[in-house]
Amino acid sequence: MSYRLIALDLDGTILNNDKKVSENSKRVLQYLCNNTFKNENGERVEVVLASGRATYLIQPVEEALGIDCYFIGYNGSICISTKKQNRKTIFSNRLNKTLQSSIYEFADKNKYFLNVYGPEYVYGIDFPELRHKAVQYASMTGAKYQYIKESYKCGILENMPDFEPNKCLAIFEDNDFVDEQIELLRPVFSELSLVKSNCHSKEQGYQYYIEFLPKGINKGQSLVDFCKCQNIPLEQVVAFGDAENDIEMLSQVGLGICLQNGTEPTKKISKMVSEYTNDQDGVARELIKLFNLPLDLIQ
C-alpha cells in the first residue's frame, strides 16, 4: 500500500520517555515531508499529530520535529490545518454549559482534580491536597495552569473566563481505579464520550486520566472526518499509538501500528505491533520499512 498520511500520537509514541523527539525520528520524518519525496503513487506524504493535548501543547512537538503538520487535539475535539495554511480550524466540538455543569458538580462531589482546557491555560480548582497532580501533569505536558480559589458553585467555576472547553480531564494515579470508575461513569454521563488515557515519563512516572468529551468524539472519528475533508482514503493512512485513547484511530485506518510499549488492549486491536518501543525509535524504524527509506537515517 502507498500511504499518503501518517497519523502520530505524541506521548508514548513519537515522544520518548524523556518527553523528547529523537534525532532519528526527526531525520526520518523530515525526509518523508521533504518537497521532493513522493510515495509509490507519486503523491506527497502528510503528517497529522493526533493527541489528547491542547493544540498549543502539540505545537512544541511539531517544532521539535521540524516539519509542518496538521493537528488533531483534545483526543479529537478539534482539528486545525498546517502552518502553511494559516492554522485554520477544520472542525471543533465543545462542551456546552449544561454538560460543563454536570462535570463540574460531579468532580467537586467526588474530589477529582479536574482540568478545564481554555484557549491558553488549563484551569483547575486549587485543592491543596490535590495540587501535586497538576504539578506532575504540567511537568510532563508543558501545560500552564490558572488555579481557581473558589470551588464549584451552582454548576459553574467562578472567576474563570466564560468559554466552552473542548474537553475536561480528571487526573488519577491508579490504573485499575480508572478502569472501574470509567465503567461506573458511562451511564451517568451518557451524553458524553468518556475516554481513558495516560501519560508517562522517566522522572514523573505514570498518571491516568478520564477525559470528558462531546458525544461521539475520539481520535478515530476525527481522523475519519479529517480524511473526508482532505479526500484521503482511509486505506492510505498509517497510524501509530500506544494507549487506549488511540484504539479507535488505530482500528479505523489502513494500517494501525501499536508500539511495543503500548497497553495490551491497544495491541489487541492493532493490525500490527512493532517490535520496538518509543525509546527505541519505533515510529522511525517502522516508517523506514513501510516507505523503503535509506537505512542510514537511523544512526
From TrEMBL:
Q: Does the keyword Hydrolase apply?
A: yes
Q: Which Pfam families match?
A: Hydrolase_3
Q: What's a single GO CC term here?
A: cytosol
In terms of InterPro entries, this protein maps to: Cof, HAD-like_sf, HAD-SF_hydro_IIB, HAD_sf
Keywords noted in UniProt: Hydrolase
Q: Which GO terms describe its molecular function?
A: magnesium ion binding; phosphatase activity
The record ties this protein, via Gene3D superfamilies, to: 3.30.1240.10, HAD superfamily/HAD-like (3.40.50.1000)
NCBIfam families per record: Cof-subfamily, HAD-SF-IIB
User: Can you name this protein?
Assistant: HAD superfamily hydrolase-like protein
The organism encoding this protein is Tieghemostelium lacteum (Slime mold)
